[in-house]
Design the sequence.
């Protein structure tokens, strides 16, 4: 069991680096979601089920959702501004 | 347990902290830097998890085991629960500020935001 | 400072910090040899003292309930901050931009399965939220699951129903009621001369849903607040896209 835990920790380290090195924001959301599920698995293997449930709901559900909502709102605003500039021009 | 595993969670926590900081420093998009902050905050979970673990310990839920059995540390898990909630909340507020900055200045890159003056 | 200079400076000082951190942890107890007495004490007495089988939840909502009160107020004030930053003010001129219509983009399977999925998620959320003192779960996790059930409405293109539910002023009141009743439950032992946040309700039998006194009640209040908080944050981000009104510059 300790080797499974050690392997998962190394996978978390690699996955953290992968999230940081993804420069495109839309792909980084997916990487962050994967990282969240992996962390929840680590918590589960280390006998922390309550925290694992919290991490799944927050790190794989609420966090990517909020980032996606923020990005879509920014895109909507810039599209609206571009539309109004084309109308005024 | 072999000696190489004695300090693994602490090293992984340090590595995640370093990765998150690297992402923050070299970021070109504010939302990217917010997500690197999430990685930074999650390094503390690994640290706390490493402190509280006991080999052969059970989960601290006594619905199906007797209350005398050896478990892992439940207090550290309570700390981690609060930590997870605070991470979500901080990122929500930071994203609101990023959206507002984008509204005011039209750009979402930290370098350009620095040189714009009102 | 140019990009490459910044990166090089950071890599140098960051590696120094990383090595110092690793050196500082060399003398910590090895991983897996937890010796501390406090955790074992709580594991042994938690079930008998509070009649709750989930000791982590008992710690969160009873032994260290004060910290959880602070965490709930962090959530409350952050939602307040998000709404202050992003909500449209009253009386602001807005102009109509093309809004998101309920186009028939999704397949019929998805639209047909949306309602059963939402019902299952709501039931699941209530189950996890109410059983916090017995099994892993509790108010916070159940609250987030309930909020996500309502986001399924938006994802499955029932935008009008989503807007009608989440823009209702009742959602703000529910959040305030959740946060306020946690504080009130904490204040009520003061009348009897006991410390703040003492567990004064009858503890019941271990293993029952209605056991462990105020733990279940506080868990329910936290669940209410968290559901309303996530719905408010989600709607604040989506308000312009759903209603199609952008403020006039």
Sequence:
């Amino acid at each position: 069991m300790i080797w499974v835990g050690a392997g998962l920790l190394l996978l978390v380290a690699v996955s953290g680096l992968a999230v940081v090195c993804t420069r495109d924001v839309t792909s980084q959301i997916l990487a962050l979601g994967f990282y969240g599920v992996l962390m929840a698995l680590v918590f589960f293997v280390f006998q922390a089920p309550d925290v694992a449930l919290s991490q799944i709901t927050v790190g794989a559900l609420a966090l990517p959702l909020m980032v996606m909502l923020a990005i879509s709102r920014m895109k909507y605003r810039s599209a609206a501004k571009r539309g109004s500039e084309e109308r005024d021009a | 347990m072999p000696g190489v595993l004695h300090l693994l969670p602490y090293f992984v926590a340090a590595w995640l902290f370093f990765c998150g900081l690297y992402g923050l420093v070299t970021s070109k998009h504010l939302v990217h830097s917010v997500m690197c902050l999430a990685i930074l905050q999650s390094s503390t979970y690994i640290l706390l998890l490493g402190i509280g673990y006991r080999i052969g310990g059970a989960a601290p839920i006594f619905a199906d085991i007797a209350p005398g059995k050896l478990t892992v540390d439940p207090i550290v898990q309570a700390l981690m629960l609060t930590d997870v909630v605070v991470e979500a909340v901080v990122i929500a507020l930071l994203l609101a500020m990023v959206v507002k900055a984008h509204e005011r200045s039209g750009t979402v890159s930290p370098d350009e935001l620095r040189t714009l003056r009102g | 400072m140019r990009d490459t200079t910044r990166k090089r400076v950071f890599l140098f000082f960051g590696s120094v910090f990383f090595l110092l951190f690793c050196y500082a942890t060399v003398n910590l107890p090895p991983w897996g040899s937890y010796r501390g007495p406090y955790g074992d004490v709580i594991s042994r007495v938690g079930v008998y003292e509070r009649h709750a089988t989930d000791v982590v939840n008992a710690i969160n909502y009873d032994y260290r309930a004060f910290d959880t009160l602070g965490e709930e107020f962090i959530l409350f004030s952050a939602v307040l901050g998000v709404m202050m930053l992003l909500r449209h003010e009253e009386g602001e001129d807005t102009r109509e931009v093309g809004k998101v219509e309920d186009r028939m983009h999704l397949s019929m399977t998805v639209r047909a399965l949306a309602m059963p999925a939402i019902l299952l998620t709501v039931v699941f959320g209530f189950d996890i939220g109410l059983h916090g003192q017995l099994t892993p779960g509790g108010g916070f996790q159940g609250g987030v699951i309930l909020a996500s059930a309502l986001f399924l409405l938006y994802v499955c293109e029932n935008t009008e129903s989503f807007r009608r539910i989440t823009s209702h002023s009742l959602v703000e009141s529910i959040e305030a009621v959740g946060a306020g009743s946690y504080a009130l439950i904490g204040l009520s032992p003061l009348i009897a001369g006991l410390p703040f946040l003492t567990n004064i309700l009858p503890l019941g039998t271990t293993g029952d849903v209605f056991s462990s006194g105020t733990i279940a009640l506080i868990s329910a209040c936290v669940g209410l607040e968290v559901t309303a908080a996530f719905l408010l944050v989600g709607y604040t981000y989506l308000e312009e896209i759903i209603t199609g009104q952008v403020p006039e510059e």
User: Anything to note?
Assistant: The two ends of chain A are 67 Å apart (CA to CA). Chain A has three helices and no strands. The mean pLDDT of chain A is 91.
